[in-house]
Amino acid sequence: MQNKVSTIVLSDNEQTQKVLSLYVSEFEKFELLDKFPEYMEIFDTLSSLDKSVLIVDISDNADAKLSFIEDITKNIHNCKVLVLSDNPSVDLIVRVMRAGAKEFLALPVIKSELIDAFNRINESLYCVAPKGTRCKIISIFSNKGGIGKTSIASNLGLELAKITKEKVALLDLNFQLGDITSFMDLKPSFNISYMLENLNKMNEDFLLSTLERYKQTSLYVLADPPFFKQAADISPQHITKLFSILKDTFSYIVVDAESSFDAKNIAALTESDLIFLVTVANLPALRNSQRCLELFERLGFDKDKTQIILNRYMENDEVSVEDIEGVMGKKVYWKIPNNYFTMMSSINKGIPVSDINPDSNVARSYRDLALHLTDSIYRENLAKKYNSILD
Ligand SMILES: Nc1ncnc2c1ncn2[C@@H]1O[C@H](COP(=O)(O)OP(=O)(O)OP(=O)(O)O)[C@@H](O)[C@H]1O
Ligand SMILES: [Mg+2]
After folding, report:
1. What superfamily would CATH give domain 136-386?
2. How far is the CA of 347 from the centre of ligand 1 (A)?
3. Is the N-terminal amide bond of 352 cis, ω within 30° of 0?
């Protein structure tokens, strides 16, 4: 039988403290600990426990409590945090989730909702939650070469890992001319072919030892195969299988897709949750991008699945953003500024732009893109989960 999970309730409101304590004591899998006057004492107590739950009411002193929650979730992995507030809003819930809390409920608390939240927390403490459901696959694509796909895939992948601290896989699907490894100065021992040959043995440990971890981050790179023959042996079914395996371990999969409509590439795009269609402000590139949008429509992709990234953007470009949006019949999702020197220096040295010059306009743009993306994903998930609270 499972041991009871030690639970601490933290609220500045006497009545809320009492009600929550009462509910916890009624729930058989949880055991209520005493009330602690100081955050430090709570931290020390939770650090000493095997598995625990912290329930925090942030109706008062929200900022201090959110930074305390962040400390807890960063340092004490087996402590799950449930947050409550009498003033819920989308922005607040996003902050709560960013701080690492597992659940959010509106006050006054409804007992059945609290029990559901406890059950989910219990599942996550004992790892029985379904796998693979949270992973987002983001493909960076253009049917034109040399447009900035690898620069975007590698820098975005790294920023996503830095921001979320979750595991991010960066995949090079340019089967004959991949260059992620040189962009990031990596010499991986294994590549996609090796993984595909060993699909049957694949588990999380094997996967993490096969992919090349980028420095001390949570970014893992899977390189293209070095020989043409190996690339030719890879089928679209292999790609689909590869994604389904990676989805169990990674929160994000960023794909540097090939500039073609080859069946393997289409398989990757079909599997993707989001396609960043990269273009630049000149007519041939825009015409090509327009053709891509048409093809995606014929493939039955949802309109919102493809988003346009305008690379090498300059304010005084002859073709304006409005012109581009008119031609494409779609808003530009993100603009990455033109910065020849920083990009060249980054590529020639094999160092991501955030390390070459974190204050440069391109480094900031990649970072903000990752932030914007995680924010929209958080909001989308939260809307699904918390619709009733926010109605
Ligand atoms: N924002 C930017 N500003 C200036 N130059 C850029 C920018 N993004 C990419 N470049 C330059 O464009 C060139 C192509 O970039 P990259 O290799 O990322 O494109 P790609 O689409 O992956 O190309 P390929 O089709 O060869 O794989 C590089 O020389 C890079 O320095
Ligand atoms: Mg490339």
Report:
1. P-loop containing nucleotide triphosphate hydrolases (3.40.50.300)
2. 9
3. no
